[in-house]
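User: Let's play a game. I give you a shape written as tokens, and you guess the letters that built it. Ready? Here's round one.
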């Protein structure tokens, strides 16, 4: 993404996704809205863990950034520390990688074309690639596939039964390799599926969407929706009428 200095700043609400993200700013970094009109500038390079709430982010002058979004179990092959340390956080990559990331930042500023910039990021990632143990990779991938195939409509006891592991083992693996517990990850997937349902099936009312996506009652659905987006479902529909469904 890139924008000129004369273009107006754009604020967007970032809602939870199911994978770690990395951002490399090669122009002015974005700013995150905190409260009462206060903003904090992002670091030049940033890694964001899985979150259970939203963040308001705005461009801040002339912007230029490369985003990397990992598959759910992708980032653990490049960052060999417990990803739970990133839970609900975005941190400066230099705090993790120090000199290596400064070199990448300097190179991005010297390259002029997008392919050249992307190549810098790819080379950096390839240099860090170190696959997790095969057993753990298979376990995590099977768990993620089960959750996504069921669209988040299952509990952790089903996972442990189907995968033949203890709940404690599964929780430890998820915290290390994904950055959330199985229950928290299921909650994110269920929300994402519900949001997709609201957007794609405009003929369904909100109550139908809630029950159809595994919420036991409407208050539970509204509570989760507001936690993840900052809006009630009704407020969300009024703000984004292109996603409108019958209430």
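Assistant: Ready! My guess for every position:
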């Amino acid at each position: 993404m890139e924008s000129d200095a004369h273009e107006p700043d754009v604020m967007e609400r970032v809602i939870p996704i199911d994978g770690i993200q990395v951002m490399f700013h090669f122009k002015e970094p974005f700013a995150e809205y905190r409260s009462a009109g206060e903003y904090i500038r992002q670091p030049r390079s940033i890694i964001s863990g899985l979150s259970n709430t939203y963040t308001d982010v705005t461009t801040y002058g002339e912007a230029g950034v490369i985003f990397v979004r990992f598959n759910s179990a992708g980032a653990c092959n490049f960052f060999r520390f417990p990803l739970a340390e990133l839970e609900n956080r975005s941190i400066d990559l230099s705090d993790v990688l120090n000199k290596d990331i400064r070199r990448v930042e300097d190179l991005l500023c010297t390259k002029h074309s997008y392919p050249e910039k992307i190549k810098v990021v790819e080379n950096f990632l390839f240099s860090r690639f170190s696959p997790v143990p095969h057993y753990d990779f298979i376990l995590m991938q099977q768990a993620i596939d089960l959750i996504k195939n069921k669209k988040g409509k299952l509990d952790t006891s089903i996972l442990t039964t189907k995968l033949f592991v203890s709940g404690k083992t599964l929780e430890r693996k998820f915290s290390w390799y994904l950055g959330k517990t199985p229950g928290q990850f299921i909650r994110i997937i269920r929300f994402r599926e519900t949001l997709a349902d609201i957007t794609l099936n405009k003929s369904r009312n909100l109550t139908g969407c809630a029950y159809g996506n595994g919420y036991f009652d409407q208050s539970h659905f509204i509570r989760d929706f507001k936690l993840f987006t900052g809006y009630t479902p009704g407020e969300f529909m009024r703000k984004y009428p292109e996603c409108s469904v019958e209430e």
